[in-house]
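pipeline/complex-builder :: batch 7 item 3
reading input block
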Amino acid sequence: MKAGPVARANRWMRQRLNVTIGVIPLWLVGMFVTVAWIAPFVWTISTSLKPASQIMTADIEWLPREVTFDSYVKVFEFHPILRWLLNSVIVAGTTTTLCVLFSMMAGYAFTRLHFPGRDVFFAITLGSIMIPAQIALIPLYMAFLKLGFMNSYPSMIAPGVVSVVSVYIFRQFFMSLPGELEDAAFIDGLGRMGVFWRIAVPLARAPLVASAILAFTGNWNGYLWPLLMAFEEKMKTLAVGIAVFAPGYGGHSQLESFGPSMAAVTILSMPMLIAYLFLQRYFVEGMTSGSIKG
Amino acid sequence: MTSMVKQRWTVSGVRNRLRRMTWRGQRIDWSGYILVAPFLTLFVLFNAIALLFGLYLSCNEWEVVGRPEWVGLANFREILADDLAREAFLNTFRYVLVIAPGVTIVAFVLALFVHQQWPGHIVSRAAFFSPVVCAPTAVGLIWVWMLDTQFGLINQYLGRLGIPPVPWLTSPDWSWLGVSLMSVWWDTGFSFVLFLAALQDVPAELREAAQVDGATRWQVVWNIILPLLRPVTSMVITLQVIATLRIFSQISVMTQGGPAGSSMSAIMYLYSYGLSRYRFGYASAVAVLLLLATLLITLVNRWLVKEKV
């Protein structure tokens, strides 16, 4: 039997590309939306590399006519970007480390260890997910204000260390871990703590990565809490600092024609976006693993 | 007898007794308390006590100096009488009504597209989730530029279609929509991956059987896939509603609640008229009202979902 050219093309496409000719319009629409979805990023980077005079143009110019780092130079010159970057690294890094460590310990104890009060503690912990954090935020803000902890790293770090979702992630993992591994270690004479550190922790790589990504992203990008805690310029995190380019902050985005603003956005977002591109699966897993609770 | 009494009060005796203590028929792991302690201490301090204190504060007038003064429900009465506060809450509900369905529908359609596994779907999948990893300040600033009335990309393209420039962020009639656009772009990726994961759990045999029976692509989506996705859809909507009720960062960056309070949200109001003015009791009362609204909506949503199933 001889098939027509269309039918043959169709068969080849179905086999090779998992598509038929009929779906090409749909596919084109989908790819168009994909391009449109990342267009704001492309536009941001392109704007940050343009000379100031070529940013606000009558016609759309997707690519810089000439690439210049003027906007970046301006950002570094007029704002303590390196200091903000350092603050972000310190705050997000420390918060993540402590959060993962404490959540891992609590998640293990809530699952594997047997002690009075355990189930009550866990129920209260999990129940608190329903309550918006903003209500606790005001007393915390007051406390730190009155105790004179404003503009300090501990005040920016401490509340972020508590993550019920992280505890939940570790608890789910330890529940699925077969008990025989630990039993064997007990027989070999390890105590409870020994079993935790030497057997359970090394096995918990997946929940560790998930909760670390969740905590780091949240704190690197965090806005409201560091905004409240750091009003001194040199203590701001990068995510808070770049808000000086916002129109409401008496920002000069219009006058500076958005170049420095987009340069600052690029400096803040690039580390996360690059990490995301390489660790996509972990990012998706980490950031959504908390939503299982529904 | 004597040996037991003696054993009770020596260090090793106490340790032995502790070691032998049981709870529900099993030895107690005392190390559990040590492992739980760091998390639980911070949790009690920063979440539990702070929450209760917030509730207490909402019935007080308390500024930076001085002692708290019990004022009963005066804060709440003041909020209800304040036009701007009312506008902030109404705006918040409007954000919920626009952003939550917007995110859900767009996320579902994008997930359906990527799920077909056509060429390039890996790029699409990466692209759709990417805004989620960015900071609200970054995304906010990007959209301030995108939505710029004169030179913004959106208005430039609309201009090519013959549409006059829209004052997205600078007009009281449009600012809520400008903020909503940014929020949909920022939040959709999250719901998108939840839908995508759920789609992968739909048995392929079901779709194939329907197609053999002559169902069209749309019938398969409408009659087979959508009903199966009801649990994840309800989860996506609930999460997005709760998140949108707390909308703050993007507004703070893009409009500061303006012009004339037109894009003000409840948390933005709490921040500008409570915290920034050191009116902690008043700010707490706003938070309590928002908490009540959140709980109410969550309960209604639960009830609606249960009714349907």
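note: The radius of gyration of chain A is 25 Å.
queue -> next item
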